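Handout, page 2. Input:
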Amino acid sequence: MTIKNTVTSHIRLNTILCLLCFFPHQAWSEDYKTVQVGENIHTTNPCAPQLIAKPQKITAKDPKQTNPPQHIEADSLLQPSKNEYLLQGHANLNQPGLVVLSDEAVLNKQTQTAVFNGHVELHQPELIITADNARVNNRQETAVLNNTRYQILPSRTHGKSKNIQIDQKAQQAALARASLTTCKLNSDQSVDWDLKFDELTIDNKTRRVVGKNTTLYFKDIPIFYTPYFDYPLDDRASGLLFPEIGSYKSLTQNESNQYVKMPYYFNIAANMDDTLTAIPMTQRGLALENEFRYIARNNDITHGAKITLTGLQDNLTASEGIVSSDLDGNLIYGDKRSERWRASIEANQNWGYGFSSTLNWDEVSDESFFADIPVQNNLKTATQKQRNAQINYKDNAFSAYIQLLSYLRLQNAAINYEKRPEIGASYAKYLGNFDFEIAATVTDFVTPVAVTNKYEAVRFHTAPTLSYQIQNSYAHLKTTLVANQTQYNMRDDGFNEPNQNTITRFIPQMAVRGGLIFERDFEFNKQNYIQTLEPEVQYLYTPYEDQSNITLFDTADRSLDFSNLFALNRFTGADRIGDTRQVSAALTSKLLSPQGRPIAEAGVGQIAYLEDRRVTLSNIPETDKVSDIFVKLGLNFNEWYFASTTQLDSHDQHLTNANTRLKWQRNDDLALLNHTLNNQGTAFETEMLSFGGYTKINSKWDLGIYSSYDLREEDFYEMQLGLRYDSCCWAAEFIAERTQLENGLYNDGIQVQFELKGLSSSGSKFKQALTEKLNF
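Output:
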């Protein structure tokens, strides 16, 4: 017969109540969604490990209650002596915040001890412990649990220990022969990986966990050992991150070199961290890379930065010199040096009161650094990298900035003008249908190296604009007047033409642009849509002004875009204001959902020239009466996204320029394609086809591919193949790549990443790189 007795015990199990304080539940927990229903905890994560015991219903603690009541139940409840209670058979001790189950329990109110024997279970809201037996001394504030298993909820991280000794006064817990894992148990009761410690000390006072003789086992095979293992109990933990193994090949090598990236993460503060990575490389030696990050906020002031430093003593360049290649692919051997380094900073600040700033700057020891050292793959074949520092100010209608624009010169870098500095300001005023805007810039153009026949100057440019606009749901009309005023103060560097120290230019512009919007209801496949028809026309007049004596500092032809039909200047930058008297016309049709969401779009447009254009980049007049034909197509429907802009020759309609992007995505499956064609039929023709995809073969295997193919040279510029295995508690990713080098050879590389879930997570490196490459 079950005897249910409730007694008020003088033994307060505060020591047991604080067991949870010692376990690193924050450091090891993952974002599992859990729901507690009655006495069961259910999780939506199919990878969550099994529960080591059935969770019990736990009464919430009342912080105002110093001596909460205890409820004791058992099959048999005896009192052998005045100070002792003996519970036998399904003993159950229940108090707010704690449930203890055991086969037998002995409570002694005189010695303030409790002994639990048999199958012992301790349940707290976020912790379950099972043990063969447990002994609690409340007077000494100690507890000993033998042959234990523990599990942290809701992540269900679990482990074993020969025994757990708790010293509440010292706020320490010592686990002997302990293990820890986030994996589910296999059918043979094994786990895919776990950490095993000879001794594990959890210090709640210092908020640290220290393990001695720690070994990481994968598939019961030891793969990593450290005599000392130290990490914090709080959210982020300092410690080793998973390494990356790879290979690469530089210009002078026929065989690939191997490297290993071994990062160590330092959790400095909640808003600050640091990662130190050791990169041992065959032939070259050991490189060290340090990445420091921080973000801070003080009222309206926010600022953050990432600072990266890399350095090594390069054995290979010390013996053969820095190697680069010329435009024909011939190798050039430079100075022999061993010290090689790079420094990088990315920073963003919001200083309040309308001020903000950005800084993106890189420096390297030599132009071949990124081609030789595998620290930033997207720069290994780059010729240059833009860098800038800028301060901004904005106050309602007024804004201003000052920036320094430069280029990090790498292999075969072109000599581009740099802005040192550029100062700009703009102001806008709106009065009814009238808009007034004025923008002014002062730019000091300099060259990064001393070259001949490269002029330098300070350019002052203002462009006050007055416009009048009428717009409603079915039509719009806008008239614009612009006054372009420019002055160049040429620097006396010995290359300027005589009497050309100051050049001034004034060019007005006038444009009238209008359009109509027609709509009709449209039904297709029993679905309702809205179809629009939008004709648009613009008249633009810009008088001729001879500008052949002005150097092209930052001016070029516009890249392919349908909106160029209505641009006020056919050039970018301010060194050329194109003379013209033209009429631009376009006809666009859109397919919208009943809610107005764009589904499909098609447009065609052309410019009719009423006179020849004498201002050109080559100083050769353009005499065509009409421009090329521009066509745009777009689709955004369910799983498909398509966008294309093409330029057709006006005489025979052959394709001259094109930019086409196609994307298909369904759940985790992804396919991307990008095709670009420039200057077809000329000596400067280029045509590239980039395509890639990522698919889930089954629940554990993912496959990815990327390729960039030069259609004119009929050669692959870059190829990548990624294969990823992803199980519940570990993942591995293999990436093989081939990149064409400057000398026509190929860099064949391999990267291998390994990830143990719960220790760290890096995600799919290949999938992230794929979306960045194709710019979706």
